[in-house]
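so i finally got all the pieces together for this one. its two components total, 809 residues if u count the protein bits. some of the lines might not be protein, just check the labels. i wanna see the whole assembly predicted at once instead of chain by chain like last time, that was a mess tbh
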Amino acid sequence: MIQRLLPFFTLFGLFVILAVASPDHFLTKTNLSSVVRQTAVINLMALGMTLVIVAGGIDLSVGSILAMGGLLGTMVMKENPIWLGVMTGILAGGLCGLANGLLTTQLRINPFIVTLGTLGIFRGVTLIISNGLPVHEIPQAFSYLGEGNLLGVPFVLWVLVACAASVHIVLEHTRLGRYTFSIGSNEAAAFYTGIPVSFHTTAVYAICGALTGLGGMIEASRLMTGQPTAGQGYELQAIAAVVIGGGSLRGGEGSVVGTLIGAFIMGLLANGSDLLGISPYVQQAIIGAVIILAVSFDEFSKRKMTR
Amino acid sequence: MLLELKGIQKRFGGVTALRNGNLSVDGGEVHLLLGENGAGKSTMMKIVAGMQPADSGDILWKGGRVSFSKPADASAMGIAMVHQESLLAPHLTVAENIYLGREPRLPLGWVNRSRMLADARRLIEEQHFPLDAGWRVEKLSPAGKQLVEICRAIAHGSSLLIFDEPTSSLSMHEAKEVFRIVKTLRERKMGVIYITHRLEELRTVGDRVTILRDGETVHSCRLDEISNERIIQHMVGRELGAMYRREPVPPGEELLRAEGLTRKPAFENITFSVRAGEIVGMAGLIGAGRTELCRALFGLDELDSGAVKLAGKPAVVHSPRDAVEAGIALIPEDRQHTGLATLLPIGYNLTVADIGKVCRMGWFLDPKKEKAVTGEYIRRLRIKCESPKQLAGRLSGGNQQKVVIAKWLVRGASVFLFDEPTRGIDVGAKVEVYEVMDELARGGAAILMVSSELPELLQVADRILVMRQGKLTGELPGRTTQEEIMTLATLQGGGALLGEKE
């Protein structure tokens, strides 16, 4: 039980510490809104990554998918309605994820290798399409997605809550979620049970891609450009969020709530370091240490439970 | 005394694995360590081998108190362990594995390969083992790997060797080879601790016996002073009823028919049928092609030729999915790897083969239906668990097997392929598995039961098919004898140690 609650207490503790250490700056609406906006993109990617990791896979290409989605979405948006652009971004991400899933299941290559390859391919294609140049002069109204407010809170918070709720329902209350756990926990047993392993594995990668595509649109909306170089290194942050939240790279373990907490722990660490004047160099090291601490505690308590 | 354990205790979190472990082993003695799964045998041996520290109690080695904090401490004293699942480096050669960590050196720390190879060859020759020092370990059968571990123990000058269920994965011929080796070790005045689940092999190897139950040493004596019945009583702590024997029921329609099934080189021209209500046994040595036949029937491997009919209709089975759709169920021999998701709850495992049954609109899980279904099957198969949320891996072997069977019952399968249904299951729990199989058959299922344990085939099967080297060599009635089965299963005895792996 403690093992489950630790990430939550860490987040809560962090919140209290920051509230005490920097009451004037931390507990302001502007600051908390900006934490939400900053972490929304990683959060969305991490939601998709949770599915992939529970299924026993990994997706290193999400940073590149983010850039591809953002770029294609903004390009479409220049001459079409905004919603069509956003849909394009999500669809492009979904297709990239589908490709990852098909390559992994059909060629039977380790997903680490497949997505290491597509990390390069998707980034390369994005750079080729854009000729390396960012997309400018996007419709002004598009900034609402990343920067607007609805009912007094950032619009992205609503998007995030909706996506998190959906992924949670998929993972815990649907056939797909149950199969995802089965495949991640013991793929051979799942296959021997007659579960369509390839189909469901591919679906999970596609969903991860689509969520990342949406993340790409939010990123583009915040920057008001479609950056072909966006999202570099985000994949590691997304994976870290899942792992801090109790996901296991061996598969079969992970939860949406855990992942959200993991992403917010990292978000608060970054925000708090800024507020307290800790240099971004030190920040990186702190986040790294938190990852190791979280996982080692997780492993330790599991080892104690099982013989 | 070579080794003495006094009042050893070991807890893991809230679970007491050993509460009072006592054992004494002398040089030149083969000491059997018996007990049901979870009785604490493995924990006790891990403590002796330095893999885990004891919480309290004394370990005496040649009369002096010792404590081991890591395997290297125990190995330095002369204690070695032959593991159930090989701990060798598969990509290295036999010689490299024997001298792993103690390679003969040249100046500057270079490994003296030629000397290592020569030393290993001499050692193997002294033991008369059918091995070559240059072979890569991954190509060896389980028995061959055990020989390498034994060589390693001898090369390191060990004086106590622990065998953890050495014959559980071996054919009869290979097992005999292990017995021979154990005897030569005894002649060399080495002490041997031998853990086993198979009562029938006790008498061939042991001198003395120690029985553990619930983490406690309950009995220790010379083997010739105790009967098998008494041993079982000590193990389970109660009187076992008369030996289980299934009453056959009149068979119904033919549910499974195999005609000329061939998949070279595993098996060839196999024809048989199983009717509703029947349990058909399948005997043979390891490597006879029985597991391969089950795999092909279940769509895991393609057939070269032959036809399968289910309830009279031709069936096309190219994948486990096809098999499951057609009503075939496989209860595989390695539960942990292909039967169960041990890290997921029991409930997940029960419903996974037919999840549509507990869903609304085919997609959304209905907690009420799920609770009802899991509850029903936990009751029906008498699965001993705290709740459906308990992880499947934390159940005993017998109950894990029941979960695998229940999974197929939920699915409503009609043809069951049992591959070694009671492997690694306690004596007491085996009967429960037989009872479940009997109930299945009475409910109209057709059962094919592959087993290497002849007594259980005689107890459970209505008739017994025998395979040898990929061919069906005969069919015997259920009330036959072990000798008749063995005659059909072996002609020139078993195969070589290399490449006999199933």
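The first helix of chain A runs from residue 2 to 21.
The domain at 2-305 of chain A is CATH 1.10.3470 (ABC transporter involved in vitamin B12 uptake, BtuC).
anyway lmk what u think
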